[in-house]
Amino acid sequence: MDGQSSRAFGSTSLQLDTSEKTDGVESLYNGILANLQESSDPSKLVLEMILNPIFPLCQKGDNVVIIVDYQIYLLEQLMRISPDIEPCVRKEALKLAFDLKANMKENTEFFLAVLGFLMLLSIYKLLDSFDEDEVLELFAFVALHKIAVELFESLGFANRVSDFVKHLINRKQIVAAVRFSCAYDLDDEDQLVDMLREHVQNAKLICESFCKKTNSIEIKDKARDQEIASLGTVLQCISENRLESADLLHKEIDHRILVLKSHKGN
């Protein structure tokens, strides 16, 4: 994307007041939402605010757009509004999408770059300009995000969900596989809980293996923290998908987390 032309597109962008920049995250997000609700063309405004960041971002090259959290929030709100997209705005969105795809690895947060790219494709109806198999492959990197299932469907991949879940399982992304399976009613609940239980057991084995190989308390605690984070993701999955048959597993995870925390520092 041509740096000057893309940023000229946003030269009249509505930006948040200086006071809003310093009042914290809540004020920032409230200001963003107010701007979108008041804008006559929110789809254009969002592009402008991505191309002309509220906060200066460290960019690796003039043509690289860095995606950060508040811009994902922008795109999420735009998805809710579901505005009509003018052809000229879609054209600029397509330029941005090509730029993001070409420079994803240049972003500090690869995950956010992928998520932003997929959201652009959904909101601005850009999928036809990209290879569908390549786009589908990218979903594996964001499959745990709260909006991933909705994006998957909005981009028309519902008929490929079975293969996608198998792909997630092959990548050992068990929690994501369970989330998508629940969303599309692919498997029996007991089978999904068994998958989660095996995932929990594997996380325990990995942690114990690391701890046995070192005398470093720092390395041991890092391994324990990683297992705790993994278990937390499983608990969230159980809760969000209301897996009633996972009550026993939930208790086992709670106990394991207590054990891990009690061992920290030793």
TrEMBL record:
InterPro entries: Frigida. It comes from the Eukaryota. Keywords: Developmental protein, Differentiation, Flowering. It comes from Medicago truncatula (Barrel medic). This is FRIGIDA-like protein. PANTHER family: A_TM021B04.7 PROTEIN, FRIGIDA-LIKE PROTEIN 3-RELATED. Belongs to the Frigida family. One of its GO terms (biological process) is cell differentiation. The lineage of its organism: Eukaryota, Viridiplantae, Streptophyta, Embryophyta, Tracheophyta.
